[in-house]
């Protein structure tokens, strides 16, 4: 009898399990072990992947820089351009500039994210701007940070009122968010640059 019972347990069964590519992420998945300290961040990343799988036109996904940054040196003129009265032109090229060197100090700790909403207009962050985020920088009071609030990403200025942490908006039309104990807050990184199209 025990042989009969054992033959019905374990092993591959025809038609069992999920079809390949049918997960909530729109592709095959695989089980791995990860450090517990990384779980909150990974849950946010997976939540974003679920959103992206549901809506392929989603523009809020996190974008990672290329693993191998290529150099593209562009001439950098010595003179500055006046935003006030015009000044005599100076065509002397001081050196070349690579935007990767300017925007990305630590490639392994950097990611990009597209901004959404108007709560940070006062900080020069507009809808659809690309934010350059460095995870290696300490998120100290006064910095603009990317954080996940209960699994939803937001960009805000980190403030404090007394002992309370506040995520401050840079637009009077939006209220600051006081981080209460019941709010799950994970700070992803510090915004270092904004890429804003004209």
UniProtKB/TrEMBL annotation:
<dbReference type="GO" id="GO:0016787">
    <property type="term" value="F:hydrolase activity"/>
</dbReference>
<dbReference type="GO" id="GO:0006281">
    <property type="term" value="P:DNA repair"/>
</dbReference>
<dbReference type="GO" id="GO:0003677">
    <property type="term" value="F:DNA binding"/>
</dbReference>
<dbReference type="Pfam" id="PF00717">
    <property type="entry name" value="Peptidase_S24"/>
</dbReference>
<keyword id="KW-0742">SOS response</keyword>
<dbReference type="InterPro" id="IPR006197">
    <property type="entry name" value="Peptidase_S24_LexA"/>
</dbReference>
<dbReference type="InterPro" id="IPR050077">
    <property type="entry name" value="LexA_repressor"/>
</dbReference>
<feature type="region of interest" description="Disordered">
    <location>
        <begin position="1"/>
        <end position="27"/>
    </location>
</feature>
<dbReference type="InterPro" id="IPR036286">
    <property type="entry name" value="LexA/Signal_pep-like_sf"/>
</dbReference>
<dbReference type="InterPro" id="IPR015927">
    <property type="entry name" value="Peptidase_S24_S26A/B/C"/>
</dbReference>
<keyword id="KW-0068">Autocatalytic cleavage</keyword>
<keyword id="KW-0227">DNA damage</keyword>
<dbReference type="GO" id="GO:0006355">
    <property type="term" value="P:regulation of DNA-templated transcription"/>
</dbReference>
<keyword id="KW-0378">Hydrolase</keyword>
<comment type="similarity">
    <text>Belongs to the peptidase S24 family.</text>
</comment>
<protein>
    <submittedName>
        <fullName>DNA polymerase V</fullName>
    </submittedName>
</protein>
<keyword id="KW-0234">DNA repair</keyword>
<feature type="domain" description="Peptidase S24/S26A/S26B/S26C">
    <location>
        <begin position="75"/>
        <end position="191"/>
    </location>
</feature>
<dbReference type="InterPro" id="IPR039418">
    <property type="entry name" value="LexA-like"/>
</dbReference>
<dbReference type="GO" id="GO:0009432">
    <property type="term" value="P:SOS response"/>
</dbReference>
């Amino acid at each position: 009898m025990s042989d009969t019972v054992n033959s019905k347990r374990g092993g591959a069964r025809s038609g069992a399990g999920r079809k390949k590519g049918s997960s909530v992420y729109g592709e095959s998945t695989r089980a791995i072990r990860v450090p517990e300290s990384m779980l909150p961040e990974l849950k946010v990343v997976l939540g974003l992947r679920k959103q992206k799988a549901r809506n392929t036109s989603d523009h809020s996904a996190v974008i990672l820089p290329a693993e191998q940054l290529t150099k593209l040196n562009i001439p950098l003129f010595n003179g500055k351009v006046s935003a006030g009265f015009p000044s005599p032109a100076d065509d002397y090229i001081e050196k070349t500039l690579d935007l990767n060197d300017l925007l990305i100090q630590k490639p392994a700790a950097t990611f990009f994210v597209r901004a959404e909403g108007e709560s940070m207009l006062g900080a020069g962050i507009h809808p659809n701007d690309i934010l350059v985020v460095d995870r290696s920088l300490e998120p100290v009071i006064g910095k603009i940070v990317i954080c996940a609030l209960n699994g939803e990403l937001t960009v805000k200025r980190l403030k404090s009122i007394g002992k309370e942490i506040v995520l401050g908006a840079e637009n009077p039309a939006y209220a600051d968010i006081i981080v209460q104990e019941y709010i799950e807050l994970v700070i992803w990184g510090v915004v270092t640059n904004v890429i804003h199209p004209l």
